[in-house]
Structure formats: C-alpha cells, structure tokens
Amino acid sequence: MPADVDARVVENRRLSSDYNVLVVHAPAIAAAAAPGQFVMIRTAGAGGAPLLRRPFSIFQIVRDAGGTPTGLSIINKKIGTGTSQIYDARVDATLPVLGPLGRPFVPPASGDAWMVAGGVGLGPFVTLAETLQRAAVPSKLFYGARTAADLHCADLFAPLGAELHLATEDGSTGDRGFITGPLERALGQARGDVTIYTCGPTPMMRAVAALAARFNRACVVSLEQVMGCGMGGCYSCVVKVRQPDRPRFVRSCIDGPVFDAASVVWEELAH
Amino acid sequence: MPADVDARVVENRRLSSDYNVLVVHAPAIAAAAAPGQFVMIRTAGAGGAPLLRRPFSIFQIVRDAGGTPTGLSIINKKIGTGTSQIYDARVDATLPVLGPLGRPFVPPASGDAWMVAGGVGLGPFVTLAETLQRAAVPSKLFYGARTAADLHCADLFAPLGAELHLATEDGSTGDRGFITGPLERALGQARGDVTIYTCGPTPMMRAVAALAARFNRACVVSLEQVMGCGMGGCYSCVVKVRQPDRPRFVRSCIDGPVFDAASVVWEELAH
Amino acid sequence: MTPDLTVRIGALTIANPVIAASGCFGYGVEYASAIDLSTLGGVAVKGLFLQERDGHAPPRIVETPAGMLNAIGLQGIGVHRFVGEKLPELRALGATVIVNICGSTLDEYVEVARVLSDAEGVAALELNISCPNIKEGGIQFGCSLGGTHDVVSAVRKATTLPLIPKLTPNVTDPSSFARAAEEAGADAISLVNTFLAMAIDIETRLPKLTNGMGGLSGPAIRPIAVRMVYECRQVVKIPIIGMGGIASAEDAIEFMIAGANAVQVGTANFTDPFIWPRVIDGITSYLQRHNIASAADLVGTVASRKPSVPAKAAATSG
Amino acid sequence: MTPDLTVRIGALTIANPVIAASGCFGYGVEYASAIDLSTLGGVAVKGLFLQERDGHAPPRIVETPAGMLNAIGLQGIGVHRFVGEKLPELRALGATVIVNICGSTLDEYVEVARVLSDAEGVAALELNISCPNIKEGGIQFGCSLGGTHDVVSAVRKATTLPLIPKLTPNVTDPSSFARAAEEAGADAISLVNTFLAMAIDIETRLPKLTNGMGGLSGPAIRPIAVRMVYECRQVVKIPIIGMGGIASAEDAIEFMIAGANAVQVGTANFTDPFIWPRVIDGITSYLQRHNIASAADLVGTVASRKPSVPAKAAATSG
Ligand SMILES: Cc1cc2nc3c(=O)[nH]c(=O)nc-3n(C[C@H](O)[C@H](O)[C@H](O)COP(=O)(O)OP(=O)(O)OC[C@H]3O[C@@H](n4cnc5c(N)ncnc54)[C@H](O)[C@@H]3O)c2cc1C
Ligand SMILES: Cc1cc2nc3c(=O)[nH]c(=O)nc-3n(C[C@H](O)[C@H](O)[C@H](O)COP(=O)(O)OP(=O)(O)OC[C@H]3O[C@@H](n4cnc5c(N)ncnc54)[C@H](O)[C@@H]3O)c2cc1C
Ligand SMILES: Cc1cc2nc3c(=O)[nH]c(=O)nc-3n(C[C@H](O)[C@H](O)[C@H](O)COP(=O)(O)O)c2cc1C
Ligand SMILES: Cc1cc2nc3c(=O)[nH]c(=O)nc-3n(C[C@H](O)[C@H](O)[C@H](O)COP(=O)(O)O)c2cc1C
Ligand code: FES
Ligand code: FES
Predict the structure, then answer these.
(1) How far is residue A268 from each of residues A202, A230, A258, B73, measured CA to CA in Å?
(2) CA separation for the pair D283, C180 (Å, rounded)
(3) Confidence of residue D143 (pLDDT cuts 50, 70, 90)
(4) Residue C235 CA to ligand 4 centre (angstroms)
(5) How distant is the Cα of B227 from the closest Cα of chain D, in angstroms?
(6) Could you give the C-alpha distances from D226 to A82, C56, D162, in angstroms and in order?
(7) What's the average model confidence in pLDDT over A248-254?
(8) Ligand 4 centroid from CA C101, angstroms
(9) Which of its termini does chain C have fewer beta carbons within 10 Å around, N or C?
(10) Which chains have 3 or more CB–CB distances shorter than 8 Å to chain B?
(11) What is the DSSP string of A48-108?
C-alpha cells in the first residue's frame, strides 16, 4: 500500500554539475520499501509545474539511531525540467513523494548476484545490495560511466559486501570502455549460478541482456519508461513483453519496473 | 521607455503576516521612475505560474552612497497567488520587473498637497512625498488602516516633511474610524489651495473624491485595476472616465493609473 | 446538518458526485490498495471493446502547459476478460462500476452492452463515442449528430442499465450532441473527452507521440470544459457528468454550478491518487458553509451577469 | 550564412515570420517606446469596426491554468480614427501594418476594407470572422462554411490588399473553413483565435467575466492550435499564419514545422513585451544550426511516424 507523503527535504548533496543525492523525510514510505522499488515525486512541490510526477528509484533507506526507517534518498541526474527541480531542491522544502511503487527485485534462490549499473542506473542497487548482504548472497557490482568523475557513490557498495568492477569510457578509472567488457570477462570465468540485475541506459541493458543470454544466465532488468501515474492508472508506461501466447504491452509501473530480460521485446521500447 | 530587468531580490522585509517590503536591484527602472508610477512583476520568476505579471507601485527608490539609483522597493499585501509569491520571495532570487509604467503624479502648480492612503494604497506616496519636498510643496499624509499594527511605514513621511494624520477603525492609533474623518475636519479648516492625492480601497477613494468635490478641491486618484499587460496592449484595465462628448473606457495602465477623480465614473469600476 | 451528496442517474443513485474518469484509473482494482473504492461516487473503468486491444506503441503521453496529451489507443483486455477477471473483485470492493464501452461498429457497441448487461455488478454504461476505426466511413459516431443518435438508440434497446454517452469537445456545438443523446434515450451525458492536439519535437521534427496526435486533458482545458457543460445544461434535462481538468473540490464545485450533476476526475488522479476524500469532503464543507441542503441544489445555479451580447459571438472577438 | 526569413503573403513580402497578434499589441504605437516596430514581421492591430465601440464592462480578463480568458468586446476607435490618428504614426515607425477588421454585417466588413484600401500604409487585412452581432441570425460568419465563403468573397472584391481570414478554433473541422477561405480568394489564413470558455467564481456563483464567457489564449491552447495548423496545412496551398500560446522561438518553430508560414504572438507579449528579438533570432539560429537555408524550407516538414490509426479518431480514444 503506497503512501503519499509531503516529504521535507533533509539534505541535497550535489555530486557534480548534474548529479545529486536528495534525502527526504518519509517514514511511511521508507518502512515499506523493498529493493528496486521507486517513488513518484512532484518535483515542483504541490501545485507547481510540471503537472506530472517523476519516477525515481529509492536509493537509500535512512534510519534513525535505533534503526527505524525515517526517510529515503534518491540519486538524481539532471536531464530536463523535473530532474532540474530535484537538483535545485532546497533543504526544508516540501515535496509530495508517493511510494513505494512497483515490483521489487527478488534475490536469487541460489548462486551469486551480479549488479550491472550504468550512470544513474545505480539507483536501485544500494537497497538490493543490502538485501543480498542480509541474505548472504555473494554479490558483485559492475558500474560504468563516461569518466571517473561520473562514477558516483561506488564507495557505498564495498561495506555491503559487493565486489566492485568499474569501467569508464575514457579509461580514467577501471577498464577502458563499456562495463560490458569486464562483465563479459567475468561471465567467461564464472562457474556457479549467477543472476544478473541491470539498470541503466537502454543500449547498455540490452547489451547486458544479450551477454546473459549468450552465457545462459538469468537476467533481470529495471526499465525506466516515461510514467504518467506510477500506479497502473494510465497505461502510458508500457513495455512489450513476451507472454505464453504472444507479446503484449504491460504496464512497467505495476508489472515492472523489474522484468525478466529475456521476456522484453527490446526493439519496441520507447526509451 | 520602460525596461524589463531580471531584478535580483536584495531584501525582503516582512512587516506583518501579510505585508512586506521587497527591495530589488533594477538601476534602469529606478533611474527613470517618476512619482506614482508602477512596475509589472512576474511574481513566480521567469516561466512560472501565474502567467501574467502583477502591477505594484514603486514604493521607494534605492540609491547608492553617491546618490545614483540602483533599485526600488514595493510594499506588498498578500491577497492571492502573485502577492503571496512576493511575500515569500527569497533574497537573491531573480524576478522579471518591467517599468516604469503609467502616468505619474504631477505636483500641484500651487498650494498644498494632501495624500490620503488606505492600507497598501500607501504604495505611490513615498515617491510623491519626496518630489513634493524637493518642490517645497507643503504636504500632509492622511493614512488609515484597520488597526495600529496595519499602519506600516508611516515613519518614512515625517523626514519628507509631511504632516501625519492617522486613523484606525479600532481607534488603536490616531482617530477612531475611517481616515475620511480627519480629512473632512482638515478640509473644513483649510484656507489656501489644496490638491488631494489618494490611493487605497475603492470605497475609500470614492469617499475621498466625494469630500474633495464637496469642499471644491482638486482630487487625483491612483486606481488599481486588474492589468493584463501594463502597456496598453490588451484593453483589460479599463476605467470609465467622462470625456468632453461622453464617458469612455480608457486604459488605466497608460492613461492612468492616475486620474482626475472628478472624471471617474465610479459606479462602473470593476474593483 | 450533513448535506445530501447523492446523485441520481436514471434508476441509479450514487453516493456522491465524484467519479474516477475512464482511462485514468485503470480497472479500478489498481487503486484498491490506496483508496477505498466504495467511497467514490463511481469508478469509470478504462474503455473496453469486445476483444482485447493492444493500443498504440509508446511514447503514449507527453506533457504540455498545465496539461498532457495521451494516445494510449484504448489498450484493453476486452469485455469478456473484464467480466471474468475484474468485475468480481470490483464488486467485492464495493465499487459503483461504470463501464466505458467502445465499438468499431454499431454492432460491437450493442454486443459489448449486452455482455455487460448480463453480468453482475455493473452500475451503468458510459458510451465512449469518440473511438477509432468506426464503420461509417471513418467519421466517428461522436462527431455526427445522426451517428450519435443511432448508436445511443441501438445501445438503448440492448440494455436497461443507465446509459451515459460521453461526448467529445471537438465539435462546434456539443450541446446539439447532448440533445441528440437525450432524444435517443440517454439517462445522462458525460463530457468532455480530450481535445485533439499535437506536439512536435523540433529537433527530430517527429510528433512527440508515436500516434502523431493525442488528446489534451488536465487543468489547461478546464475553462473550455466548464463552458461546454454550461451550454449543455441549457438544452438538456438529463443529468450531466462534467469533467476536464478538475483537480480540487473548488474545480468540481465550479462544474456543478455550471450545470454538472456529478463530475469525473481524470488527470489529477495521476498527480494525486489520494485526491478523492479531499474533493468529496470539500464539496460537503462548501455546501455546509453556504447552507445548501444537497449537491443537487447547487447544479446549474450560475448567476447571470447581464449578457448584453450573445456570449458565443462576443467571447472570441477579443 | 544568414537564413532567409522572409515570408510571402500574396503580393506582400514580410521581413520575418513573427507578427504581433491582434488585440495583444494595442494599435502598435503603444509599444514603440519599447520595441522597434520595423523589426517585426508585422503588427496586427486591434480589431476595428467602422465605428467606435465601447467594449464590455470590466472585469475583462481572468487567468486560468497556463492561460487567460478575455472578453474585451472589441473596444476600438473605429476605422476612420485609426486611419487618421494611428496609421501615420505606424508608417513613420516603419511597421508592416496588418489591420484586423470586423463587421456586424457583410456590408460593414466590405466598407471597413474599402476605407483601409484607400489609406496609405496598410500592408494587409486580417478578416476577423468571429465577431459579435452578426446579421445572419446570430450565427457567426466564422462558424458557417457558407458564411465564411460569402464574407471572404465580398471583401475580396472590395480590396486588392492581401486578405487573411482569421479562423476560429471553435468548430469541428477548421480545415474545411481554411478550404472555404482559400476558394473564396483568401491570400492566406490565420489561426487560431481564442477558444470559447468560462470561469465561475464559486463564492458568488457569478461568471468571473462580466460578459459571462470569454476566449482562452496562452500556452494552454498551444497543442490544440498546433494540431489545427497541421490539419489546415494538409488541405490548403496558401500561407498559414499560426498562433496560440507561442511564447518562445521553439514554440514558433513547432508551428512552422506543423505547417505555418508565419506566426503571431499574442498573450506572451503581455508577459514579456521584449520577446520579439528572442523569437526572431531564435528562429535564425535554429535554421543555421540545422543548415536550413530559409524559413520557408521549414514549413510543414513534420516527419511522419507510422499513423496506423486515423489520428483524429485515435487521439480522443484514451
Ligand atoms: C522506475 C524508474 C526509476 C527511475 N529512477 C531514476 C533515478 O533513480 N534517478 C534519476 O535521475 N532518474 C530516474 N529515472 C528517470 C527519471 O524519471 C527521468 O529522468 C525523469 O522523469 C525526467 O524528467 P525531466 O522532467 O527531468 O525530463 P523532461 O523535461 O520530462 O524530459 C527531458 C527529456 O528526457 C526524455 N526523457 C524523460 N524521461 C525519460 C526516461 N525515463 N528515459 C529516457 N528519456 C527520458 C524526454 O523525452 C525529453 O526528451 C527513473 C525512471 C523510472 C521509470
Ligand atoms: C497600478 C497598480 C498599482 C498597485 N500597487 C500595489 C502595491 O503597491 N502593493 C500591493 O500590494 N498591491 C498593489 N496593487 C494591487 C496588486 O496588483 C494586486 O493585489 C495583485 O495583482 C493581486 O494579485 P494576486 O495574484 O495576489 O491575486 P489573484 O490571485 O490574482 O486574485 C486574488 C483576488 O483578488 C482580486 N484582485 C486581484 N487584483 C485586484 C485589484 N487590483 N484590486 C482588487 N481586487 C483584486 C481577484 O479578483 C481575486 O478575487 C496595484 C495594482 C495596480 C493596478
Ligand atoms: C486580450 C486579447 C484581445 C484579443 N483581441 C483580438 C482581436 O481584436 N482580434 C482578433 O482577431 N483576435 C484577438 N485576440 C486573439 C489573439 O489575436 C490570438 O488569436 C489568440 O490570443 C491566440 O494567441 P495567443 O495564445 O498567442 O494569445 C485577442 C486575444 C487576447 C488575449
Ligand atoms: C491517459 C488517459 C486515458 C484515457 N482513456 C479514456 C478512455 O479509455 N475512455 C474515455 O472515455 N476517456 C478516456 N480518457 C479521457 C478522460 O476520461 C477524461 O474525459 C479527460 O481526460 C478529461 O478529464 P481530466 O482533464 O480530468 O483528465 C483518458 C484520458 C487520459 C488522460
Ligand atoms: S505509469 Fe500510469 S500505468 Fe504505468
Ligand atoms: S493592462 Fe493591458 S491595456 Fe492596460
């Protein structure tokens, strides 16, 4: 059951000229959230423009000294109106935050979990890594970006027991090139069961899904489509997925954002 | 020639829970302003809602140490969306300010000048009082409000040589009742030429105009109609005024806001 | 004294005038975890054809100033699966179910209406007469007075359920369509559906929606929709369900004063899925504050200011 | 390379596609202290009848989400005083003067057109065919195809000035009116005028405008206006002057891609009277950036995305 919280902005941590982490006070949402779920935020505050909310992965759950969830953070990348408002949000401002929403990630029944993130696609993975750690699932994070300065918050993962593999297109940190490079090498060497979880730019996710298929590994994607409502009301966010009889458009807000990569008809994705 | 300035908010002085004085940096407008002129402000900042600008009298001209005009202030009363935005405006925010606009007050050719202000109708009178002082015109300010706490900024007028007459409806300062009480008494005693200048709620201005007519004194009103553009473009701000052949709607933004009170057809005012 | 909020639509009485708009509330069940559906005046579910429909390829929505365009393309599970899979749940939740029905042909409308009339738990039918792929040479039923009359009459014969044709605003005179619907036996009318509109990406020069055009909804259209409800109120006696950009109790009240007996909330539910109690309670307190005994007493009570000039002509004249 | 911004409208060539919209720019002279009028593509002055008109009692405007309603009631000084008092000043300022003409009767339109044809310094006539108090039993010329054809033909015979009927959006199919205007001899068409709309004060239950209804303009209407320009572009060959909510170069470019040869800016001038160079220069830099040699090469170049379903039908289908 999602809640709509008039959430106070507790902190706005600028990571770069276009990335920030925004922390809001929202106990009801934080307490209910599962890994990989998202929130819909009215980025202008109540009543402002733009009209529609914007979806963001729940990045971190914030807890008080006693461990009780009090809030959450999102990692935001400025690409347009709403994400600019999130970048510029002032501490103590109030933003309507609706959530938690969507199907969460499910930790693998057996074997290892490998997370593959591109840029702001890191969003859903802190909560997943925490869950994996609690479930004692060995995990790796493959994390790629254009350049070292764009690899934000990677330091959050070592304490969560995830083994880090980095790549930058310019080679400034980790492998030079796409993150699929190190991923492919690792897949070539992997012995046991591996489930891949990926979130990032569509071309990256598609390439990851193709690698997973080639190496015969389960692969779960978290898709980021434009969403009008986030609750199954509008049918705007559809993704074509293969179903037993034929492919169908399904709502990525309630039937996703997490999908079995093999079921997704990639050619028909809007973004 | 009006200028449109992206004016930085220099100070926001709250006077009460609904009044404030907002100071903005706008040298081009400040340098050109004449007493009683107004500015049109995009209260939400560029691009925000509401769409239309809001008119405000130029309250004070701000000057640097050398006396060069650098900005202006407005005295604002919160009554709706735009005036609430002005009340809440943050220092260093940028507001589009267009001006100076409208016909200014003209000091009397001879005799005394009496200003009669109600509430936020004080707006145009600081600049007028300065001009009167420079022109050595003896002046009085009649200033009324509901209660003492609503009589803001009256202290600005003594240094400008204006004799103060106050009234509050609850009698907490000055005369008990409307400001037309002391005005009527003063008119009864006045010997020489007097020109009355008035700005405030329409019922007050109408009563002042009626008193002026009864005592056969010139009376100039500054009317506050809803304005779409402030520049004569839209014909929204019209006021019916008597003209030699017949009464006509004239645009209060360019043919006003200052009118000869005797020419105004009060019954047909929208506000 | 608690004002009477009930609204009568033909034989149906709904608890209050606030209904979820079709296409903006899924099949209703999606919102059951957030909202008690039985507290709404009604739930108009997503438009249904006889068969399943895939809808348009995304992107299906795009934002515009104070509004949004949609071209969903009436994706839906078809009326049979709706009756089998969704209706029982909606009944269990206590929802007053209004089914928005579509057809590519007159026969399909009639058939969809029959299927729903035979099912348990349908409170009313909302006849979506702005659907694609209509027989009649591409002219929509909803854009021709004869077509409107024909489809309403045909469905009227096929069902005793309250019948609510939903009118398009994309016509010169919606009130003539209201009259045609009333004459053909409608129990009420609802309006407005969305305004046909278009947005173009200037960098690619492609329409922003895959479908090319889409329907404009949201606060942007509210003043036009209020006008149309007002016009319809002048010519029909049957209840009017007004909508278009309603996002608060105040907006709902404005439509009721203009002539709407009930209202629907669409786009605002996307922004604010918990809007329902605020709108319903806001109407109650307005009625109390103004000493109005029932919602019905508010309907069409707009006061007149001397309309010296024919309003229609004057308004567009600048 | 500087792109060619000129636009031809009949025998007239204007310097660039950006025109001030009628009723939003007074008689032009009001803005001369702020803007060099000769830098605009044209100045469409406030609608003029033969005689002076008082207009409606205020309040005449009210804001709505991303838009505004107006019911000015065509207050104006009449064509003779315009020719005597305003036109000489406009000529001196180098403005390309487009006069928006109105009539209560067909004869009045013709007479106004004659007076302006005899005057010096009028570049074109924009025929406002959504005016109040029309003969023809209250039906506006602009809402009947026959009426549109008649008034355009009649004025066409009375003037050799470029003639630009201005179309209302309050009809089912504006493109049929575009065709009627073209057939009757129009040199270009302009659209859209405002959308008939209404806003009610819920406390007093009075319409917020004294006139009752008003016309909606501003960004709210932009996507509907773009659609209408697109539809008209499909059926007429004559130039189209598009407008409705344009507030930036990007908006102007969107209209041009949809099919407008030129554009008008109305409401945005209220918010931003110094908008003109920004729109004009923005078009120039867009054309440069995209290597487009002339504004004309942009017109109607919207790319098509497989329109599998008739767009009109589909869009309003949710
Ligand atoms: C489930 C989910 C989780 C998400 N999590 C995060 C997150 O944690 N952090 C984060 O920064 N972003 C996240 N996003 C993406 C984020 O929602 C979009 O970036 C945001 O909605 C864009 O809004 P805007 O107003 O800034 O852009 P707009 O001004 O609306 O659009 C700017 C441009 O970006 C395009 N665009 C808009 N949305 C998307 C999209 N989803 N994918 C590709 N292009 C798009 C538009 O078409 C337009 O061209 C998530 C999206 C989803 C669906
Ligand atoms: C030349 C001129 C000078 C002005 N100077 C000042 C000034 O110095 N300080 C100041 O605080 N205000 C001044 N005003 C009034 C001010 O412009 C309005 O209060 C403001 O536009 C209201 O905007 P809003 O968005 O807050 O109200 P809205 O939300 O637009 O409206 C709220 C309510 O107030 C009503 N309303 C709006 N404008 C007026 C008006 N002008 N008169 C009466 N009722 C109105 C509306 O009809 C509505 O009912 C001046 C007006 C003019 C024309
Ligand atoms: C206050 C106002 C007055 C108008 N007066 C006229 C007019 O006299 N003649 C006319 O043809 N259009 C008139 N219009 C319509 C505009 O010219 C334009 O068609 C419409 O406003 C849409 O453009 P916009 O959204 O850019 O304002 C008026 C519009 C407004 C807002
Ligand atoms: C995404 C979306 C889908 C819609 N689908 C339907 C539909 O299936 N059937 C229908 O009659 N109306 C549909 N509509 C129209 C709405 O029911 C409503 O008439 C319109 O949106 C105006 O109301 P609003 O401004 O409150 O949204 C849809 C609207 C939207 C925004
Ligand atoms: S975002 Fe509305 S259905 Fe998914
Ligand atoms: S405010 Fe537009 S003409 Fe006066």
Answers:
(1) 12, 20, 17, 57
(2) 47
(3) confident
(4) 24
(5) 8
(6) 24, 21, 24
(7) 98
(8) 13
(9) N
(10) A, D
(11) -SS-S-EEEE--EEEE-TTS-EEEEEEEEE--SHHHHHHHHPPTT-EEEEEEEESPPP---
Residues 179-238 of A with CB under 8 A from B: none
* Amino acid of residue D318: G
Q: Which two tokens stand for residue A153?
A: 């918050």
Active site residue D131: yes
3-state secondary structure of C184: coil
Query: Which ligand has its closest atom nearest to the C-alpha of B229?
Result: 6
Helix (H) or strand (E) holding A259: strand A258-260
Smallest CA–CA distance, residue D153 to chain B, in Å, is 30
Q: Given this model, what pLDDT does residue C112 score?
A: 96
Q: Test D305 with C46 for CB contact under 8 angstroms.
A: no
From CA D97, how far away is CA A122, in angstroms rounded? 58
What is the pairing mode between strands D124-128 and D97-101? parallel
H helices of A66-215, in order, are 81-88, 125-134, 180-189, 202-214
Which one of the listed residues D24, D102, D131, D232 is annotated catalytic? D131
In the reported structure, the alpha carbon of residue A226 is separated from the centroid of ligand 5 by a whole-number distance in angstroms of 8
Find the distance separating the first CA and the last CA of chain A, reported in whole Å. Answer: 28
Q: Tell me, what's the pLDDT at A47?
A: 83
For A26, residues 6+ apart whose C-beta sits below 8 A from its C-beta are A3, A5, A7, A39, A71, A72, A97, A99
> Does C61 contact A228 at a Cβ distance shorter than 8 Å?
yes
Residues of C in contact with D196 (CB under 8 A): 224, 227, 311-312, 315-316
Residues of B in CB contact (< 8 Å) with D are: 1-2, 4, 42, 49-53, 96, 98, 225-226, 228-229, 231-238, 248-249, 254, 268-271
State the Cα–Cα distance between residues B122 and A166, nearest whole angstrom.
Answer: 65
User: Is there a cis peptide before residue C207, judged by omega within 30 degrees of 0?
Assistant: no
At B79, the pLDDT band (50, 70, 90 cuts) reads very high
Ligand 4 pocket, mutate which of C193, C195, C196 (most atoms under 8 A from CB): C193
Q: Of C66, C254, C306, which is closest to D200 when you measure between CB atoms?
A: C254
Computed over every residue of chain B, the mean pLDDT equals 95
Ligand 3: atom nearest CA of D247 is: 26
Cβ pairs bridging C and D (under 8 Å): 280
D102-137 pLDDT per residue, tens:
998 899 999 999 999 999 999 999 999 975 333 443
CB A230 within 8 A of CB C24: no
Q: What is the pLDDT of residue A48?
A: 85
**pLDDT band at D138; cut points 50, 70, 90:** very low
Walk across the sheet containing B3-14 and list its strands.
B54-57, B38-41, B94-101, B3-14, B19-25, B69-77, B60-63
Chain D CB contacts of C218 below 8 Å: 65
Instruction: Give chain B positions within 8 Å (CB) of D199.
Output: none
Q: Which tokens belong to C287?
A: 């009625």
CA dihedral A177, A179, A181, A182 (to 10 degrees): 120
Compute the distance from residue B233 Cα to the ligand 6 centre, in Å: 5
- Say which residue the tokens 């809602």 belong to: B49
pTM given for the model: 0.96
pLDDT tens per residue, range C100-134: 999 989 999 999 999 999 999 999 999 999 753 33
**Ligand having the closest approach to the CA of B249:** 6
- C213 contact partners, CB below 8 Å, separation of at least 6: C69, C71, C196, C197, C198, C207, D227, D311, D312, D314, D315
**ipTM of this model?**
0.96
Kindly identify which residue of chain C lies nearest to residue A81, measuring between CA atoms. Answer: C63
How far apart are alpha carbons B128 and B125 in whole angstroms? 5
Given pLDDT bands bounded at 50, 70 and 90, which one contains residue B169?
very high
